[in-house]
non-specific serine/threonine protein kinase (Araucaria cunninghamii), 529 residues
Amino acid sequence: MGNCNALQTKSVNATTQSQGNFPENELHISAPNASGAAFTGQKPFRHASGSHDIGPVLGRPMEDVKSYYNLGKELGRGQFGVTYLCTHKQSQKTYACKSIAKRKLVNKDDIEDVRREVQIMYHLTGQANIVELQGAYEDKHSVYLVMELCAGGELFDRIIAKGHYSERAAASLCRTMVEVVYTCHSMGVIHRDLKPENFLFLSKDEKSPLKATDFGLSVFFKPGEVFKDIVGSAYYVAPEVLRRCYGPEVDIWSAGVILFILLSGVPPFWAETEQGIFDAILHGHIDFASDPWPSISSAAKDLVKKMLRQDPKERLTALQVLNHSWIKEDGEAPDKPLDSAVLVRMKQFRAMNKLKKVALKVIAENLSEEEIMGLKAMFKSMDTDNSGTVTFEELKTGFARLGSRISELELRQLMDAADVDGNGTIDYLEFISATVHMNRLDKEDHIYSAFQYFDKDNSGYITKEELEQALKKYGLGDEETIRDIIAEVDTDNDGRINYDEFAAMMRKGHQEANANRRRDVTVGAPRHR
């Protein structure tokens, strides 16, 4: 896999010294663009007039998707587009239609990345357990990808809903994921963003196939080719990605992390901050002493260890994983249920930060005029098109103009922490939330005012009922979310949240954003368009 000796580093520094200059031993966190490539400092690929008419993206005659499909309800929204339910006019079959706004494609690299995603999806369509691309269309304003509709939900959601789980079930799911990796690698593709959220069930049926989705960060590769751009999602990124020297082995690492979570409910590399996560990944220590690992079979542990080898040359290939005794169909994986605590931890892992995001918005709403004045001016200076919202690019440019040394990773965290409505931009109030988050909530009165917002009767505790009432405003007040939040925050297990517990949660380092929003914190450009 090429020569990586010059890039061996022991730690990663998630800060940048100046725009465009990144020392070899530092982690350059890429700015987000439409498809996942790193920004390279080029001027935006736009006409001088400011027009966004960038011409054909797919390199073929434009075609109106609405000539063939009726677009229905919105299924999801990201920073660079919207996904709709669509129905084929002739067959009446339903699909998912992802629209990518051309005005968001700010340079030539962005356009090339969209083309590559389409090429890779066409290349892989027809392979088992990979979402199929039905067609790609383009008009003057957008590119449209019509894909197989996966309506069965995410991997973790299905496991949690069943309520019982075994090593054999984990082996079956892992086998499917690694079969996808094997297919990709044998066809010259590295996925580069494998994680549970990118595996969806085709339908609600119990025997529904699991499908790999989202090839926005994927690349074609040749044997021996070395990649250096840092992409992926924090918990799942391989150490050699952080060292800027990697090949297809990164997909096996990510699949190994998923398997670790499937068996234990938590990721193998954990810290209060993402910088801490990266350092833990590079250090490479994996805890097999804590529960539930003593009760997990030795064969399962053997496979996890071999998939998470620090040296990619020593890591198993996809074919070797599939031939491992534990993962084979009718293999060694026992059918006895795993410890129920695994499911509990998995649910808490999925529920992270829902309460915190709402609390940040509450703080923003209650800041004094004196505190807001400077932030208001800051927001106006960044909102260069006077749209009332700030995109990631505007945020990055604005902070650089203000002389801030904040890293692009921290900016990504600000965006994800504040974008409560999940539309991919931040409005004025969300901007205030982001800057409060950036300052790590040093002011005690901010935290206390947020606590009082939830503690409606001033009892000194946030009860289940008060939590439900407050979160309903943000569409988060369902029974399961409430239970998960209390389980995560209520450390003394009295069924309610006191001020100390609330404050401890608020001061914790930012963890990955809610995966349901389909736009996770990334160690590079975000996967979602």
Observations:
- The longest strand covers residues 69-78.
